[in-house]
Specification:
Length: 215
């Protein structure tokens, strides 16, 4: 599954991100706005820049040609400069890799839920397109790229309707397991920081959420 960790966010930045996504999910006019922003016949490309561990990157390399699914909300941008700004100043090391996801999306897909959130986001210039939990992609190509002299790995993917039933069943099962133990806010935090084995980091982030929303 795609690593969707928050990228060195200050607590207030975390709160802003939560508020933005909550607003989007709760707004009754989101469908109307989405159709205004994204044509129902449009095929478009979005990008996302991030750093990931070497181990996680190796898993992605082995998944070329394989279906993968996001286990958290997946934020992207239409503007490559915006995506690259998230990894500007970072470098490939023995422990981490710089990645630029390049995703082709067909607006006629039925199971991949996404929205053009530029109108709703407080950062208007980021031209964000947000994918919901469980979006399915297929990795088509992975190659090294010296784009803007940043020396990163470009991972090209296509959004797809394939295998969505299995993903949907998984999300329903997980939801049943934890809905009685957590509030909707904390559950939302769990989705933002997916379970990839880093339990200490997950615990730390959830405690941060508790402090933020206790104020």
């Amino acid at each position: 599954m795609i690593n969707n960790k928050q990228r060195n966010c200050h607590p207030q930045e975390i709160k802003r991100n939560l508020e933005d996504v909550t607003l989007i999910l709760c707004d009754p006019n989101i469908d109307k706005q989405e159709h205004k922003q994204i044509s129902s016949t449009e095929v478009f490309v979005v990008v996302r820049g991030q750093t990931t561990s070497r181990e996680e990157f190796e898993k992605l390399k082995q998944s070329c040609g394989v279906l993968i699914s996001t286990n958290g909300f997946f934020s992207t941008s239409r503007d490559p400069k915006v995506a690259l700004s998230f990894i500007a100043g970072s470098y490939n090391t023995d422990k981490k890799r710089l990645i630029l996801f390049e995703i082709t999306v067909d607006s006629q897909l039925k199971s991949v839920i996404f929205a053009d959130i530029e109108t709703y986001s407080r950062m208007k210039d980021e031209t964000n397109v947000l994918f919901s939990v469980g979006a399915v992609f297929i990795i088509t190509q992975i190659h090294y790229d010296s784009l803007m002299n940043m020396n990163l790995w470009k991972i090209q993917m296509k959004a797809t309707d394939d295998d969505w039933k299995q993903v949907d069943e998984y999300l329903i099962t997980i939801g049943k397991q934890i809905k009685e133990e957590y509030s909707s806010t904390i559950l939302f935090g769990c989705l933002l920081w997916p379970d990839i084995g880093e339990f200490d980091r997950l615990e730390k982030n959830l405690k941060t959420l508790l402090k933020i929303f206790a104020k």
